[in-house]
Structure formats: structure tokens, C-alpha cells
Amino acid sequence: MEHRIVTSGPTGWLALGAALMGCLSLAACGFTPLYASPGVAPGLSAIVTDVAQGRAGYLLREDLDDAFGRDAAIPPAYRLKVVVEEKRLPRGLRVDNVANRYELQLKVTYSLTDAQTRAILTSGLVPIAVTYDSADAPYGGISAQQDGQKRAASEAAQQIRLEIARYFASTKAP
């Protein structure tokens, strides 16, 4: 099956002209995608992450290293110190006064420092809340809790990555 761009007739030429004008206007305004080579990707890959102990901290560090695209071949130019506070609160009760739903709250504070000077470049707080159902079976409850931790850590990593990318984009860092 062959696909062709129809440029015959006034409608086809108008569509082609509009597409070209859109490309030209983006090029003229200095638009650069956030993760383009002169963008923030080199700065993100030069971040080494220090996270406190615990399962949620471990999951968060793994997600952050993946999100930043950490390149172990280059020495780190930045250090990201992350502190995780975790709370588990019962949220729905059954007739027998046993919780059937829980809310997992992560309070993640971070600070990005220059690896050489140890000057704090940016810092922030990322609050995350996820819920999960409890189960009567003990293994099911543990599995649900661990899934909640994984989802919360993934969400926190995504928000931290976006905030640090925004910092690099605003400071024109490498």
C-alpha cells in the first residue's frame, strides 16, 4: 500500500504551507526541546544520587538513576541528596473495624549540590500520596504495600527529575 501526501488543489497546498510555516516559526523563536543535546540531558546524566536506607529509598534511587540516565563512565558533576519520610495511614474501615484501604504518604526532600564546591544549587519538597487495598491474606497485604511503595517512589522520581530539568533549563547548564 502506497501513501502519498496530496498537494493538489487549494486544500493540499494550504496544509503543506501551514506545516512549513509552523516549522519556520519554531526555528525562528529559538525553541529547543528540553532533552535536546544543548538542553539538560548532559547535566542530568552527571548526577549521582544519595538516598537514605529503606525499601522506599532504594526504589527511589533506582528510579532516579534510570530517569537521569546516569553515565557511570563520567565523574559526577552533581550530587543529589534525598531524604524520604514514609507514613502509612488506614483509610477505609470494614464492619469489623479493620482497615481495608491504606494511604501511603512519602515526603521527599532533596537538594542538588555541585560536586566540586558543595554549593546547594536547588532544593525542594515532593509530597506523594498513593492508596492501596489491604488483603486478608498476609502475603497479599505485604504485596499490596510493596506495590504502593513502588508506585510512590516512581511518582516522586518523576517529579524530582522534572524539577531538576527545569532548574537546568532555566540556568542554561550543560
Helix-strand category: alpha+beta
As laid out across the biggest beta sheet, the strand order is 1-2-3-4
Mass-distribution shape: flat
Task: Sketch the topology as an H/E string, one letter per element.
Answer: HHEHEEEH
- Termini separation: 45 Å
Structure description:
The chain is α+β, with helices and mostly antiparallel strands and 174 residues long. The chain is 42% helix and 29% strand. The protein contains four helices and four strands; from the N terminus they run ααβαβββα. It has a four-stranded mixed sheet. A hairpin with a 5-residue loop joins β2 (78-93) and β3 (99-114). α3 (55-68) runs parallel beside α4. The longest helix has 34 residues, at 138-171.
What characteristics describe this protein?
42% helix, flat, 4 strands, 174 residues, alpha+beta, single chain, 4-stranded mixed sheet, Double Stranded RNA Binding Domain
Helix and strand topology:
Elements: H1 9-28, H2 41-45, E1 47-51, H3 55-68, E2 78-93, E3 99-114, E4 120-133, H4 138-171
Parallel strand pairs: 1-2
Antiparallel strand pairs: 2-3, 3-4
Helix pairs in contact: 3-4
Summarize the structure.
This protein is of the alpha+beta class and 174 residues long. It folds into 2 domains: 1-31; 34-171, Lipoprotein like domain (Double Stranded RNA Binding Domain, 2-Layer Sandwich), CATH 3.30.160. It contains 4 helices and 4 strands, in the order H-H-E-H-E-E-E-H.
